[in-house]
């Protein structure tokens, strides 16, 4: 169970940061090949992104309680945000 | 001097980084290694690679042996075994200086001196003292560097354009300057919470050293009284009459009942006196807070008091705990390690930005000096650390002052790296210096696990099969370092070739320029 929650917390923050990255015009353009990002979609992506980050925090809390949970979530989010940055960079390289 | 905030912050960021960055790399790197200090200790001292025991050992049964070692020591401490350090550690101050013994919990035998400082007595003090003990200068330099880190982060955030728009922007394919700028900013922003909290909590840990005036004003010349009162320590004056300490096992189980947790540490003061005080501290492996909740007994086992946990003290204990990570939480331990190495990468990329920008100036003063220093402080430091592991396995066990020779090996290799980097960079072949030192790291880090296999028989497959995670983990870390170094060296080689093929003209003129600078 703790391992599942750990993976869930990481996956949720990874997905959350991916959505947040897509809500930025630069990355939307690069990944989707479309110039325009409708503002409704942008808002949706941001709400979705932050919701997943929140879900990641909740998973971390359930796994470890508030004290360890905050530390775990902070560091896991840093790793997942950096992973998203590297994923976006790799995607540009391939195209 | 500056017309805008951005200009002044850029100046501050640049120059605090260039002046204290090298020290920060060393502190971050040694801190990252200290995260796994007990594991590295097991690797470096093979006699302590004992199976973890869960049954608690009788302290009273060990007493005759401990008393024989203590002779007439007045104070002593005993660290009880745990999963990461599966043996007892007895420490006291004798007439000939501080003494330390490791005791096998299964047999009660004293483990032979391992002849190494290991990580707990080399990498860890390196992290917060730089091993400069004279006049307490080391911690002050580290404190200044920690302050600089906070300044660097604040000024870095203030000068960053498009903090959120460029949150994930990393373009590794472009020119080196832009790729470094991207990576530096992305890592700095994403890792900001960690990079801010770690130096800040480090400063808090040493606050009594850096800001002694407050304590000194309220407790002139009696700082120890302040600390005793702060933790609610019970102290008894020496009576002068002799006394014998009663059952330690009874005291321990009484303390453990109160905590509902296991004891970690035992401290005895006035050991031979009728007024002996025995202090037990609990282990904190299940909590962030570094709060041992000390319980004090007199020699008959009567409880004298329990450490009071006031709000200010518990806040401090939490901040200490965040930095010292004495808790048992493997995912967090790995994340701290990765984040610590990330701190090194952050500072190195910062230097690369400064160098690349500076090189385009007509008179790039200091570029060669800083680049040589950077090579020695980054790859050179990893090389010397690899050499420390190799020396640990190569030096015969019966070498006189073996631990000192390991240290000598570390600093000799580091000095060699400085000389090599200086020479190559002065000859205008900085890229060659980076590449050759990366190969040196590859060889050193790759040799250490092989030497571990030859000298102890614990090869990776065996330590993995036996569940010796500490030994296996260090081996894997060394092999990973070796692999990464090889990849970096190959890339540097390729980049050097293409650069010389594509723009021989530019390189030659750059060469001439640096020679004239």
TrEMBL record, chain B:
Residue ranges, annotated region (Disordered): 496-517
Keywords in alphabetical order: Membrane, Transmembrane, Transmembrane helix
Spans through the membrane: 12-36, 140-165, 186-211, 334-355, 367-391, 438-455, 467-489
UniProt xrefs under Pfam families: PepSY_TM
Domain of life: Bacteria
InterPro entries: PepSY-ass_TM (IPR005625)
Biased composition annotated in UniProt, kind: Polar residues: 507-517
Stated name of the protein: PepSY-associated TM helix domain-containing protein
